[in-house]
Write a structure and sequence with these properties.
Layout (H helix, E strand, L loop, with lengths): L2 H19 L8 E6 L2 E9 L7 E2 L1 E3 L2 E5 L2 E3 L9 E11 L4 E2 L3 E2 L5 E5 L8 E4 L3 E14 L4 E2 L5 E7 L4 E2 L2 H5 L6 E9 L9 E5 L5 E5 L9 E11 L2 E13 L7 E2 L29 E10 L5 E4 L13 E3 L15 E10 L5 E4 L6 E3 L1
Parallel strand pairs: 1-6, 3-14, 15-16, 18-20, 21-22, 24-26
Antiparallel strand pairs: 1-2, 4-5, 5-11, 7-10, 7-12, 8-9, 8-11, 12-13, 12-14, 16-17, 16-19, 17-18, 19-20, 22-23, 22-25, 23-24, 25-26, 25-27
């Protein structure tokens, strides 16, 4: 059915659903409150997995889902906010959020303590993955004191499919347990680690740890469906199905400084690494150079003079060898160049993960 017919029908259906749904609760409400980690700004108090894909329901030839918004009540039952504006930042064309967001809509809604709840039925007319970004502006606490704008939040909707089709950068913004499909990943580590590999985008702008369930050779370009998780500061993809796979040449490493290992690039569901600057490099194949040092436990660190001190005894970033299937010996001292995966360990410290002795050059 042509979109010019479906879109008016979608609008009428959403209006009808909104009129009847006020008789029941909105189990998927977003609750707005103060940020517990930064009380000077607004945030989403619950649900904590609000960026997890929500599957829309087929109704009369279109797809809809109920997701309202509300002010959060504290333990004493009091609102933390007295006013807030939910301001649209971006959306996938074709997505409509009640009378407020999407195609042909004003792009914002206002909440006050006198009217703290707005009910919305979100709808689309075609199967696919739909993203909606927004932030909270014009916010005041319950006493009327102004608060800073919130970060930009992400909502993900899927219609007629079970996995959200997203790119790697979007995957980093989504919570554990999200079912996603990611296309055109390139293996940059092969089968050298115990139980996982790494992959990155063709343009070397993002990477991810992959738990494949099968071998994925170095240089292979593949697309996969799976579920997101996290190990330390690294976003993971546990593969359910590889939908395509093509052999290819190994990717070339990106030269970075110690401070760029891991990288901040903080988003709500994937934390930044301690002391890093620049863009997020986690999961990318990189090259670093510096002098090698050891702490009292025998752990090796590489230092390029940037002043990184992630260990009280040794300067630089740790060289992580613990997950290699075939360990190798590092030199006891001197200047080296090292290729490996930019990683973040359980303590959120940046590390580099060489793949084999071939990644090491001594001078």
């Amino acid at each position: 059915m042509p979109n010019r017919i479906l879109l008016p029908a979608l609008g009428l259906l959403l209006t009808a659903l909104s009129a009847t749904a006020v008789l029941g609760g909105c189990e998927n409400d977003l609750m707005f409150a103060r940020d517990p980690d930064n009380p000077g700004r607004a945030f989403i108090a619950e649900p904590l997995d609000f960026s997890k894909p929500f599957k829309m329901n087929p109704v009369m030839g279109v797809y809809v889902i109920d997701r309202g918004v509300n002010f959060y009540r504290d333990e004493s039952g009091q609102y933390e906010l007295s006013q807030a504006r939910m301001q649209q930042v971006s959306y996938t064309p074709g997505l409509t959020g009640g009378a407020y967001f999407g195609d042909g809509k004003p792009g914002y809604l206002d909440l006050t303590s006198a009217n703290p709840h707005k009910h919305m039925n979100w709808g689309v007319s075609s199967p696919g993955t739909y993203l909606f970004e927004f932030k909270l502006t014009n916010v005041k606490d319950i006493n009327g004191n102004p608060l800073g704008d919130s970060p930009v939040f992400l909502m993900v909707f899927i219609a007629g499919r079970d996995y959200a089709l997203v790119d790697l950068k979007t995957a980093h913004r989504m919570p554990d347990g999200s079912n996603v499909e990611i296309e055109n990943l390139k293996s940059n580590a092969g089968n050298v680690f115990d139980g996982f590999v790494y992959a990155q985008t063709a343009g070397r702008c993002a990477g991810i740890r992959v738990i494949p369930g099968t071998t994925i050779d170095l240089g292979t370009t593949f697309s996969a469906k799976g579920i997101l998780g996290r190990t330390g500061g690294e976003r993971t993809l546990s593969i359910h199905e590889i939908t395509s796979s093509t052999p290819g040449d190994p990717p070339q490493p990106l030269f970075v400084t110690m401070r760029c290992l891991g990288g901040p690039g903080e988003v709500i569901n994937t934390p930044s690494s301690v002391g890093s600057v620049g863009l997020r490099t986690t999961g990318l194949l990189v090259k670093v150079s510096g002098t090698i040092h050891y702490n009292g436990l025998g752990h090796a660190f590489i230092d390029d003079g940037a002043g990184i001190q992630n260990d009280p005894e040794a300067r630089g970033c740790r060289i992580a060898l613990e997950d290699l299937l075939t360990p190798f010996t590092l030199p006891s001292q001197g200047f080296i160049t090292l290729i490996g995966i930019s990683g973040v360990d359980q303590d959120l410290f940046s590390v580099i993960r060489p793949r084999s002795s071939d990644d090491l050059q001594t001078y």
